[in-house]
Write a structure and sequence with these properties.
The complex is a heterodimer. By secondary structure, chain A is of the alpha/beta class. Chain A has 2 domains: 157 residues, Alpha-Beta Complex (Aspartate Aminotransferase, domain 1); 255 residues, Type I PLP-dependent aspartate aminotransferase-like (Major domain) (Aspartate Aminotransferase, domain 2), CATH 3.40.640. In chain A, strands 4-10-9-8-7-5-6 form a 7-stranded mixed beta sheet, sandwiched between helices. A 4-stranded antiparallel beta sheet of chain A has the order 13-14-17-16, covered by helices on one side. In chain A, helix 2 packs antiparallel against helix 10 and helix 12 packs across helix 14. Chain A starts with 19 loop residues before the first helix and ends with a helix. A 4-stranded mixed beta sheet of chain B has the order 3-2-1-4, covered by helices on one side. Chain B is of the alpha+beta class. In chain B, helix 3 runs parallel beside helix 6 and helix 4 packs antiparallel against helix 6. Helices cover 41% and strands 19% of the residues of chain B. Chain B has one domain: Sufe protein. Chain: A, CATH 3.90.1010.10. Chain B starts with a helix and ends with a strand. Chain B is globular, with a radius of gyration of 14 Å. The chains are: A alpha/beta, B alpha+beta. Chains A and B meet through helix 12 and helix 14 of A and helix 1 and helix 3 of B.
């Protein structure tokens, strides 16, 4: 099996032969023209496009299932509840989570991490304690921990990385101490593409009895995840990055941990009984889902997972690795271009800088060619500081991208050189 | 391509390649830092103001071609002007690049703007307006002796 992220096998669901040209037709937006040219969307690490099946599921929900969940005694409310809980079960299946009760539906990966930092963190991280993250975290896996540490008088420590953009695991024994209370590391780096050896990190932390949160926002779009095999304690994903709607995400937490955690937000849905003197809280996962949830988004996310589970992920892994290799070799031929992030194990993400042209100018010229790439710091300012660059341009490929998209990018970079007289 | 030439006019490319007044001003009595956190542009503007006249002005920093060229052309444009004249120029410049948007009154006075009209194409690229404005906001902060760093966000 040629998995790239250490994904679960999805063999049981494989129903059709993978062909990028065929799957492209499932994504209506890819047929759009941009500034008179075909849209070349290679900013998938920022957000992914949505297949018709997801768009349909959201429409269907509002057209025929909409009611509030978990309360109505009437049929429509039961239908809405079923759609919502089906979405949760789909996500559980995609992450190979034993029980859907271990999936908390949230807005995003960011909210999932904030939930753990606030609820688990406040209960376990005290003065003089330590939280361990890595040098390549997205701001969403830095700032919540930094806020927690400031509030509790704890210390934020960082697993360093080397010039290629790989975590230096030799430092782990020094960094994991009897004061470490939680480890939070990204599965895949959004700005460098590095696939981290999270299984090793989890095993090392568990030797000390330290729980580990994995930020899976960038890993989940590249295939099903197996949280049992990873043995992580928390795993966070965003729906919109895995071909689902915006505003919906999920947090996996081991039941024993979730059950011992206090609520994150207070409100409706998360209670058992309320009096003005005292409130008792619902069991998990409802305890963490205050207020009317994003039901339509959950139905859409369920449809996204359903769509993904029908794909041949071995073939996709091969296709995406081919795109990465092809893109990196073509980019290296562009004079004055330097690739940032050259780890041994990478997902289909390439960051680069060009001599004499700021990333923003690359982005504006590429846009004129219909090519959508991300330029900036990618919410990883410490990574930019590490490489001493103010910003990079980044191409990130999904399974619906093709070598033609890479060629369009290379063509756009030719225009950049022309405009800037390089 | 012609559309790109509107944004990246020759004078902008020239000033990006060899920015004027790119240095620290040793005897500056006004100074401010600005940044555009979304793109990572950073700039420091120095000015020496005597009797309300900008005797000398310079800048340092990193950023895209638009922000670098804007800073360079700005320093050339305001040197020797009074603080009030510089502020007027800023208003005219802002009206031009923002296309009269965000509460700016009237049309940009192209005559007054001189070489700065090269930035006229920026208004067609809303994502880049901040790049062109950053040096001016920072100069404004320096002249107003505002202590807090300027941010486009």
């Amino acid at each position: 099996m040629t998995t790239t992220v250490g994904h679960a096998a999805a063999g049981a669901f494989v129903k059709r032969k993978f062909d990028p040209e065929t799957v492209r037709t499932d994504f209506p937006i890819l047929a759009r023209r941009m500034r008179g040219k075909p849209l070349v969307y290679i900013d998938n690490a920022a957000t992914s496009q949505k297949p018709r099946q997801v768009i349909e599921a959201v429409r269907r929900y509002y057209e025929s299932l909409n009611a509030n969940v978990h309360r109505g005694v009437y049929q429509l409310s039961e239908d809405a509840t079923a759609a919502y809980e089906w979405g949760r079960a789909q996500v559980a299946q995609y992450l190979n989570v034993p029980s859907p009760a271990e999936i908390v539906l949230v807005r995003s990966t960011t909210e999932a991490i904030n939930l753990v930092a606030a609820s688990y963190g406040r209960g376990h991280v005290g003065e003089g304690d330590e939280v361990l993250i890595s040098a390549m975290e997205h701001h969403s896996n830095i700032v919540p921990w930094q806020m927690l540490c400031e509030e509790q008088g704890a210390r934020l420590r960082v697993i360093p990385m080397n010039e290629r953009g790989e975590l230096i695991l030799d430092e782990l024994p020094r960094l994991l101490t009897d004061r470490t209370r939680i480890v939070a590391v990204t599965h895949v780096s959004n700005s460098l593409g590095t696939i981290n050896p999270v299984k090793e990190i989890i095993a090392a932390a568990h030797e000390w009895g330290i729980p580990v949160l994995i930020d899976g926002a960038q890993a989940a779009p590249h295939g099903p995840i197996d949280v049992v095999e990873l043995d992580c304690d928390f795993y966070a994903v965003s729906g919109h990055k895995m071909f689902g709607p915006t505003g919906i995400g999920a947090l996996f937490g081991k039941r024993s941990l979730l059950e011992a955690m206090p609520p994150y937000q207070g409100g409706g849905e998360m209670i058992r009984t309320v009096t003005f003197e005292h409130t008792t809280f619902a069991s998990v996962p409802a305890r963490f889902e205050a207020g009317t949830p994003n039901i339509a988004g959950t139905a859409g996310l369920g449809a996204a997972v359903d769509y993904l589970q029908k794909l041949d992920w071995d073939a996709i892994a091969e296709h995406e690795q081919d795109l990465l290799t092809y893109a990196e070799s073509k980019l290296s031929e562009v004079p004055g271009l330097r690739i940032i992030g050259t780890a041994e194990r990478k997902i289909s993400v390439v960051s680069f800088v060009m001599d004499g042209v700021h990333a923003h100018d690359i982005g504006s010229v590429a846009d004129q060619e219909g090519v959508a790439i991300r330029t900036g710091h990618h919410c990883t300012q410490p990574v930019m500081d590490f490489y001493n660059v103010p910003a990079t341009a980044r191409a990130s490929f999904a399974f619906y991208n093709t070598r033609d998209d890479v060629d369009s990018l290379i063509g756009a970079l030719g225009q950049v050189r022309k405009v800037f007289g390089l | 391509m012609t559309y790109m030439r509107e944004l990246y006019q020759q004078v902008i490319l020239d000033h990006n390649r060899s920015p004027r007044n790119f240095r620290e001003l040793e005897d500056a009595n006004r100074r401010a830092c600005g940044d555009n956190p979304l793109c990572g542009d950073k700039i420091t503007v120095y000015a020496k103001v005597e009797n309300d006249v900008i005797e000398d002005v310079a800048f340092q920093g990193t950023g895209c071609a638009i922000s670098q060229a804007s800073a360079s052309l700005m320093t050339a444009a305001v040197k020797g002007k009074t603080v009030e004249e510089a502020e007027k120029l800023f208003r005219a410049f802002h009206a031009m690049v923002a296309g009269g948007a965000d509460g700016q009154e009237g049309e940009a006075d192209t005559e007054k703007l001189g070489k700065l009209v090269a930035f006229g194409g920026v208004k067609e690229f809303p994502a880049r307006v901040k790049c062109a404005n950053l040096p001016w906001h920072t100069l404004h902060a320096a002249l107003s002796e505002v202590d807090a760093p300027v941010s486009t966000e």
